[in-house]
Amino acid sequence: MLLFNMTFEVLDISGDAGIRAYGKRCEDAFMNTGLGMYSLMTDIDGVLESQEKDVEVRSDSAEGLLVGFLNELIFQFDTYGFIGRRMEVTAFSIQPSAYIKAKVYGEEFEIGRHEQRLLVKAATYHNIKVERINDEWKAEVIFDI
To answer: Closest by alpha carbon to 40, among 103, 116, 114?
Structure first.
């Protein structure tokens, strides 16, 4: 299991929002991208870890895996009102096939108790990047809002 420290930055994109996240390992960058996305939606410091959701996604590529993973987190929010604060990766690979299994800790979003920021509709493939630069991984994604 792996716990994550947040390492991300918000990208200033006209009409949309983006996250650039970093990590020592590729899965760190994925988790930091997810936490960055949640921070676009609310102040995650105010989110309790009273529930957990298991997330599992497979894809043919690292970029597809990142988009699929983020869209699954968005689905959990849209369908169940679940917003995360912390994540643990339990299984991860980008070669030969890409998959991620993770536990997301958080709670149901409550209007009035949680700050409402952006309504994130979907992670997109526009300018998506998952790359290793020296000893660090970088993931970059743009969201439809």
So the answer is: 116
